[in-house]
Amino acid sequence: MAISDQLIQRIHQTKQNNIHGFFDKIKTKKWVKDLYETLFLPQSDNTEDQLKKNFEAIQKTLYDLINIVTGDKILTEKQVGKFFEALPELYDQLVLDAKSILEFDPAADSLEEVYLAYPGFFATYVYRISHQLWIQEVKILPRVISEYAHSKTGIDIHPGATIGKSFFIDHGTGIVIGETTVIGNNVKIYQGVTLGALNVSKEKAHQKRHPNIEDDVIIYSGATILGGETTIGRESIIGGNVWVTQDVPANSLVYHKSEIKIKDNSSLPESLTFVI
User: Fold this and answer.
1) How far apart are CA 208 and CA 90, in angstroms?
2) What is the pLDDT of residues 218-267, one digit of tens each?
3) Which residue in 240, 242, 249, 207 sits closest to 225, CA to CA?
4) What is the three-class DSSP state of 12?
5) Cβ proximity of 113 and 98 under 8 Å
6) Which string of DSSP letters, residue by residue, matches 209-253?
7) Is 218 helix (H, G, I), strand (E, B) or coil?
């Protein structure tokens, strides 16, 4: 069955009227991977000249991606310049993140292992570069980049979140960190943690909706912390599977107490038997 001319015209008109350019997602993913490999992974030719060539190609690709949105060569050049001016500091922050994983994860034997095999570090890397573009107010691209990490690692960090130094993600699958979250230094987060909003109405889009996590906090797997006015005080430990919607004082231990019963299963009551 042929597609109607009317539908084709509607789709064409919608695309023509779109105020933003569309990114080549394959090219965007390649840019993220190329920058990561240039910063952290060994390559066949590790000379300084080759590194310079790599960065020139990475700069060119970023220019192309941003120019799709701005349509302004001068503005695009400024945006690319700002990003690469910030890159030394981003690199230093990421090395601290990797060292934090090496220090606190007993399974990590070297920084090279962290760079090669740790999804939590890759997600943190993608967050830091997308956050830099976010604060530069580059439209859409930071979200496209962050969703690449989400699809690859199962870790969803909004590029608008603020995260301090030596950030540690262990395992990571299922972590969600919302746009207005503020995280201090030396924070450790395990899989399945949600730092989310209590209210998701559109009217609160420009308000503080997500929690504050102060320095040296540990948040164990499955914990949910919600609300823009919720603060977890420094050096607190949030246990697994807890639900927090109010302030937690510094140096607190928050945990969920459950009861586990072990019985002989040879004579289960009829009400507990089932068939799938």
Assistant:
1) 25
2) 999 999 999 999 999 999 999 999 999 999 999 999 998 877 777 776 66
3) 242
4) helix
5) no
6) -S-EE-TT-EE-TT-EEE-TT-EE-TT-EE-TT-EE-S-B-TT-E
7) strand
For the chain, the straight-line distance linking the first and the last C-alpha, in angstroms and rounded, comes to 42
Q: What is the pLDDT of residue 90?
A: 98
Which residues, at least 6 apart from 132, have a Cβ–Cβ distance to it below 8 Å?
A: 83, 86, 90
Angle at 133 between CA 117 and CA 74, to 5 degrees: 135
The C-alpha R_g of the chain, in whole angstroms, comes to 23
* Chain centroid, CA 234 distance in Å: 22
The 3-state DSSP composition of the chain as helix, strand, coil percent (nearest 5) reads 45, 10, 40
| Token output for 18 | 């779109």
**32-91 pLDDT per residue, tens:** 999 999 999 987 777 889 999 999 999 999 999 999 888 899 999 999 999 999 999 999
Query: Is the pLDDT score of 195 beyond 90?
Result: yes
Which residues pair with residue 157 across a beta bridge?
177
DSSP assignment letter at 137: T
224 closest CA partner among 179, 267, 178: 178
* Positive or negative torsion for Cα 153, 156, 159, 163: negative
CB 127 within 8 A of CB 195: no
